[in-house]
Write the structure tokens for this entry.
Amino acid sequence: MPAVELSAGAIHYEKSGPPDGRPVVFVHGYAMGHALWRPLSERLAARGFLCLAPTWPLGAHT
């Protein structure tokens, strides 16, 4: 799983869709993770959107 390295730690994210697609960033609440958005991001990726779903700190890390 790709990650962005920050001084406070890494934020992992799931990416789907074409690299040149219009970006959509999904946000989840406390004790959840990126997988919450997978069904929707797969459908949007199939329509040409670049979907990014991070797992924020204090989420349900995998």
The chain has one domain: 3-55. The mean pLDDT is 87. The first helix runs from residue 38 to 46.
